[in-house]
Design a protein that fits this description.
By secondary structure, the chain is an alpha/beta fold. The chain has two domains: 121 residues, Rossmann fold, CATH 3.40.50; 74 residues, Winged helix-like DNA-binding domain superfamily/Winged helix DNA-binding domain (Arc Repressor Mutant, subunit A), CATH 1.10.10.10. The chain has eight helices and 14 strands. The strands form four sheets. A five-stranded parallel sheet has the order 2-1-3-6-7, with helices on both faces.
């Protein structure tokens, strides 16, 4: 089956070189030199994206978050930045792998083949809303591109909210569904503490929560900011 790869790189010579190497390997290549051009290409079926971080009309990582919020597609970041914190930002945005410039064509081809193999039959489950991104597969939460550490209990509570967005969950339902790491029943006081800590990690202002809303006399409800 023909694999379609979108190359988003503003350096025309590099873009052309990558495209030529991919076509020689039997891939069907779509080329874009800006994010605006890339958005038009996404109207077609794309199996993998090669994405430069620094583009004339924006940051590739922001584009990556927006793409993953609409369709699950593996992404390989291309960048001249090789510092660890830059790589972590790329992975936090949702990329599947990373390659720094300059790179060898054989290494690039091997990385592409590996990412495509891993993505076969796998649909990445991502929740994306504004600055908040949660990867269900990796149990990974980021806010404004920064990794946010979650306890096992916070992770379970967050996933319960995300799977029931817009639905009021009573305290009884939450206590029934959430167990600690040793599969023990969570006490009412522990639930209060966990909700407070989770709000501190997902909300811009925990005192005026926009995601985890208290429905007085009933329970709690998760509301998306961007519906």
């Amino acid at each position: 089956m023909e694999k379609h790869i979108l190359v988003i790189e503003d350096d025309k010579a590099l873009n052309d070189g990558i495209a030529f190497a991919l076509e020689r390997e039997g891939y069907f290549v779509h080329r874009a030199y800006t994010l605006a051009e890339a958005k038009k290409c996404l109207k077609q079926k794309i199996n993998l994206i090669l994405l430069d971080i620094n583009l004339p009309d924006g940051d590739g990582r922001d584009f990556l978050r927006n793409v993953l919020s609409e369709q699950p597609v593996p992404v390989l970041l291309l960048t001249a930045r090789d510092a660890e914190h830059d790589m972590l930002k790329g992975f936090a945005a949702g990329c599947d792998d990373y390659i720094t410039k300059p790179f060898s064509v054989p290494v690039l081809m091997m990385k592409i083949a590996a990412v495509l193999r891993r993505s076969e039959g796998i649909s990445r489950q991502l929740y994306v809303d504004g600055a908040l991104v949660y990867d269900f597969e990796r149990k990974c939460l980021t806010r404004h591109g920064m990794m946010v550490e979650l306890t096992a209990l916070e992770c379970r509570l967050l996933e319960l909210f995300l799977h029931n967005r817009g639905i009021v969950l009573t305290r009884e339902r939450l206590l029934e569904k959430i167990w600690d790491a040793d599969e023990r029943f969570v006490e009412d006081r522990t639930l209060n503490v966990t909700i407070r800590r989770l709000r501190m990690k997902v909300e811009e202002n925990p005192e005026q929560p926009e995601y985890i809303k208290t429905i007085f006399g009933m329970g709690y409800k998760w509301e998306d900011k961007q519906s």
